[in-house]
Amino acid sequence: MRVLLLKEPKDGESGPDPYIKELESRGHKGTLLPVLSFKFVSLNTLTDKLFQPEKYGGLIFTSPRAVEAVRMCLEEDERREVQNLGLNPLGEDTGTAEVLSRLIIEREATNIPPLFFPCGSIKREVLPTALRENGVPLETLTVYQTAEHPNLEKNLKNYFKEQGIPASIAFFSPSGVKFCLEVVRRLSAEQLTQIKFAAIGPTTQDAIAAEGLCVSCTAEKPTAEHLAIAIAKTLQ
């Protein structure tokens, strides 16, 4: 069955995209369509802050783009290791509750200075709000802007024209839901209810449900394998 994956394709030089590969191994044909475009901003300010580690108690990442922005700044200055700057990175795979509990414990023990949070122009306020409510200081800096991919509507129209209504559509972010859903509704028309909607995680699941659509499956973990397992199960 055909599955539409609303995400940026993996760089072709590094081998087959894992989402396509995992779906093919389960008898389904996946197609990737880029949904978002990104523009990096405030990189000079970011560089300045990265090289003032004494001002911050840690560095929080919640998106790959923020990691990429930091990497760009470090490579520009020929210093690759965040650890060498004295910052304690908290990765994007760490849940909000776990991050919060760790930071509260650290703050009570050491009275840590503000945490530094490089983020995008579209971000959820769950973590910042939770930190503020628990007295953990946080300094944010927008380091990339998120916008709709300029060819999104054209690419969606071409897909539906050439391949028809997919059996399943997978969303990978609330922003993807925001930018795609109106076009998907229009192109699917009365067949919208036949599509099995899949989410990469609970945040995206909530965004789909908020639009009044039924979420057929959500990946247990945000990986290609777990998403393919969930989609294959719902398409049985």
Overview features:
236 residues, alpha/beta, 5-stranded parallel β-sheet, 5-stranded mixed β-sheet, 9 helices, 10 strands, 42% helix, elongated
* SS field, number of helical segments: 9
Please give the order of strands in the largest beta sheet. Answer: 2-1-8-9-10
- Count of strand segments: 10
From the structure provided, what is the oligomeric state, counting identical versus distinct chains?
single chain
Task: Tell me, briefly, the overall form.
Answer: elongated
Describe this structure in words.
The chain has 236 residues and is an alpha/beta fold. The chain is built from 9 helices and 10 strands. The protein has helices at 18-24, 43-50, 64-76, 96-110, 126-133, 152-163, 174-188, 202-210, 224-234; strands at 2-6, 29-32, 36-40, 58-60, 89-90, 115-120, 138-148, 168-171, 196-199, 215-218. It has a 5-stranded parallel sheet, sandwiched between helices. Strands 3-7-6-4-5 form a 5-stranded mixed sheet. Helix 1 (18-24) links the parallel strand 1 (2-6) and strand 2 (29-32). Helix 6 packs across helix 7 (174-188). It is elongated. The mean pLDDT is 86. This is Tetrapyrrole biosynthesis uroporphyrinogen III synthase domain-containing protein. GO terms for molecular function: uroporphyrinogen-III synthase activity. One of its GO terms (cellular component) is cytosol. Residues 18-227 form the Tetrapyrrole biosynthesis uroporphyrinogen III synthase domain.
